Amino acid sequence: MDNVTHSLAGLLLAECAVRLRSRATGVEPATRVGTAAAVASVLAANLPDADLFYTGAGGDRLTYMLHHRGYTHTVIGVLIGAALVWGAVLVVLRWRSRGWPARGDVLWLLALLVVSTSSHLVLDWTNSYGVHPFWPVDDRWRYGDSVFIVEPWLWVVSVPALVVGSGSRLLRVLLSLLLLAGLALAWRVDLVSKGAAAALTAGAAASVAVALLLGSMPRVATAVGGWLAVTLVMALSSAKARDSAFRAVRASDPDAEVLDVVVSPLPANAVCMAVITVERTGSSYRVVTARVSAAPSITEASGCGARSGVGAIFQPSTRISTRAVRWDSEWSAPINELATLAREGCPVLAALRFIRVPAWQHESADTVLLGDVRYGGGSGTSFSDVRVPVRSSVCARAVPPWTPPRAEILGFAVR
Known about the structure:
alpha+beta, about 50% helix, globular
């Protein structure tokens, strides 16, 4: 999830915590504690992305893939990160006020920061990039496949409540500009349909009206409820799209074994989904891209945006489309080829510890271009594309132990 959304989650959680504490105790937390809670909650909600400082974002692609959303995006990382922010905030409060906060405030702040840092993992899990939160007990990736990485509806339901409830004029201005910028972009970017942009604009107006009419506690509760409702609706639509794609594969090719169905909702759209199916038929490995409508009676799949960009190795799909599923493109290769590449090339196996939908092409007798179809891999321009030697025992430094998402087709034990 993008860091703006993580920050909004941190602010909303802090506001919710303040309201709940004041309701339970009958006393508002001290102003300095409330301010510290809001700032610390935003920091905690973004803290797991501190891994960007050592993954080399924009540098080595393999290092980035292997270590972003790595150790800091785990339950252990969350607890350590929350404790560090908590300690730093207490030191600042002690320095600014020459005294420690009350014991109740100290424990309340710790609980808030654990929840705020945890929210980062939950939000990142909801999209198709994935996390592996249970390391070192479980090294597998977990994917929510339900919310686009930048979902403007989350901004619409939360920003007005935060603006009305904030005591900082600067924060009110910044949040208001953020919402206006988000709505303006929704009308301009191709990923958001005009209908979705219109719905967002109307939703923002309604959200502002509700925030102005309600008291502090109902206003925060409505914002949190709206956030959860958006996530639930997207998740239900994603599940419906996944089921439609699975059934469509069965109808098109009864012999195909569906290994994975990757679902990526379009932003601000609970109906249209970009879908990738990963299949095995006999000795062949196949990847097929499609557009799927979770409600074809409202919007047919063919009306769900343009064909998603994939590498030149893909060809138009020959499958028969329906109102619910519009097959776009496909690519296949011998399934044992990937297993051989992973067995003989340590860099290939390292990349496969991240790549969920592998596609590859030999650029020479000694080099292969390997990428993830989720991000247009195989084209040579995707951040997931890596050029690696066909045979090499030289491994990248500090390769993490993540279980390869496609371990079932590698044909050998992976540690």
